[in-house]
Amino acid sequence: MTEMLLAINANNTNCKFAIFDGETMLGPWRSATDPRRTADEYGVWLIQLLNIAGIERGQVRDTIIASVVPDGLYELKTFCRRYFDSEPLVIGEAAVNLGVRATIERPEEAGADRLVNAAEAHRHYGGPAIVVDFGTATTFDVIDGEGNYAGGVIAPGPNLSVDALYRAAAKLPHIALKRPASVIGRATVPAMQSGVFWGYVGLVEGIVARIKAEFGRPMKVITTGGLAPLFADAIPAIEHLDPDLTLRGLLHIHRLNRSS
């Protein structure tokens, strides 16, 4: 029977689950992040999806978790133990070797997903590098030439801006985030879409340029996250679109720790 790995990346908006059979990734499957969700709720949901994919629960022998939602971590760990008889590796715990270091002033504050992104970006693309992650927040992770997480930038994500416009302005509707046909909007909705979309294009271009100028060396630029495919083609500074960067990073961090 093939032994597989379950990788879990729990972010503020979505929790992503993927199965790795060697280098082959099955999934990913997404669940809305809710710290109140129990281990059994995760179990019922994911086991059904695995059955549909033709994966037997007994094939999953190991688990690894990266989470930026502390309140939900206990149930995710319980889920791994109860449904897969596996003690999960958890990014951020002292015993877990990432293969890189966080060289910021407060290393304990670095988000688990950002550390995984740094490790995998360096392993796969080399460095120095910038990882632009389009999630609930838009983050810019700076990886030095040795692969260490050297700091970054955190900005509100595009969907937060959409929600803020809707909540704060009485006459503005809630809009779908999309690339508008033109920069100049000739009605309220396309004008809002243009402001959010092209505003974030400008934000990313500007921050990437300033990071490169401050770092003082050529840097590769990789983007990931749920909204990355929407923005990647509009930003020439982005060299690589890699939606599965974090999940693939969990696979290789697991291998690093199991082989040591």
Structure description:
- With 260 residues, the protein is of the alpha/beta class.
- Helices cover 39% and strands 24% of the residues.
- It is built from 7 helices and 10 strands.
- The protein has a 5-stranded mixed β-sheet, sandwiched between helices. Strands 8-7-6-9-10 form a 5-stranded mixed β-sheet, with helices on both faces.
- Helix 1 packs across helix 2 and helix 3 crosses helix 7.
- The mean pLDDT is 91.
Topology:
Blueprint: E1 4-10, E2 14-21, E3 24-32, H1 39-52, E4 60-67, H2 70-84, E5 89-90, H3 112-125, E6 129-134, E7 137-143, E8 149-156, H4 158-168, H5 188-215, E9 220-224, H6 228-232, E10 240-241, H7 245-259
Helix pairs in contact: 1-2, 3-7
Quick recap of the structure?
The chain is an alpha/beta fold and 260 residues long. The chain is built from seven helices and ten strands. The longest helix has 28 residues.
